[in-house]
Amino acid sequence: MNTWSLLWIVSASILPGSFFFWPLHVVQAAGQNANLVLIVALVWGVLLAILSGPMPRTQWMNRVITGCDLASLMAVMAVDVVLMNQLSSMLQTFFYFDTPRAALLVPLLGVVGLGVLRSPQTVWRLTGLWMPVLFLSSTVIGSLALVNVYHVRQLLPNSVIALHPLVRGLAMLAYLAIPLGMTLRRVLPRMAKHPGVRARTVAVLGPWLFLAIFYLVVVGSLGPEAMTQLRWPVVFALDHVTLDSTFFLSRIGMVVVFSWTVGVAIGLMVHLRLLLTVPPCSSLLPQRHWLILGILVLWGGLALAIPSPDQSSRLLLHWFNPAIGVYLIVELLGMLSLAYYTRHRRKPP
User: Fold this and answer.
1) How far is 216 from 214, CA to CA, in rounded Å?
2) Which pLDDT value is given to residue 254?
3) Fewer CB near the terminus (10 Å): N or C of the chain?
4) Using an 8 Å Cβ cutoff, are 318 and 84 in contact?
5) What is the pLDDT of residues 136-187, one digit of tens each?
6) Residue 230 parent element (H or E)
7) Any residues with CB less than 8 A from the CB of 72 and at least 6 apart, and which?
8) Is the pLDDT score of 28 beyond 50?
């Protein structure tokens, strides 16, 4: 794997969680200053990328980092349950009205399982194949949606900046930030050459630009007040791109459905593949079929057990996000402490 592989893997690990919640809850919390939240999130991501560089580790440091990665993966997989519930509900609401959610979710999980259960490199190859296509198609659709951007003033921060709404907005991004540190720490040692600070920063900047583009499209076309009345503002904004071509209008929804479904599938594959690199799961590689099958069944059962997307949103925001926010603070402080300890510890004579 090279530098481009790192960009695609990090993007696939982070972005599927943004498809259904971005930027709704951040704007609800921070209002017009949500763009400042996005800037602070970029600074945090770059700092975490810098701290993920190579450092000599002792045995106890490896155990601490492994424990953090395992806890992070558990949180990521809990968020994935909410993500699958939102995807099946969105498909049923916009495109397949009379189709049961199980009929939409089971084939997706089957594809994810087939991808993960093949050779260990299959997931990375699929990510390197599909993520550039999804980035390109999303950029084209987002560029076409810019013709509907009329609320330019709402894209600028308010003259009065309050600290509490910014903190609340950052707390709303916890579910998006949770995969970043874990993905960097699990992928970097498996690359052909350890990437430098610039390459790690680019890997963080890629998904951040994706989020910034769709923040611009959604808030600029709908306005902060109107978008907070929608459940999936990004889907609404992209599905209502108005051009003169009837051919284009009749197919833009299918492009969104295909791109988002593939993006979610790749993200789930990456999370499962990263799980197989963490002890004790790494010792179960010969029997990984049963582990993956059990996780897929658990995912599907929990996603279908949540009765509605409103319930899954409340589960994410009021239960998962607070715990994830505390973990992210502890993770950053821990990485800073490890970097300080590694740099200032005494060298043996």
Assistant:
1) 5
2) 67
3) C
4) no
5) 888 887 777 777 777 777 778 777 788 888 899 899 999 999 999 999 999 9
6) none
7) 178, 179, 181, 182, 327, 331
8) yes
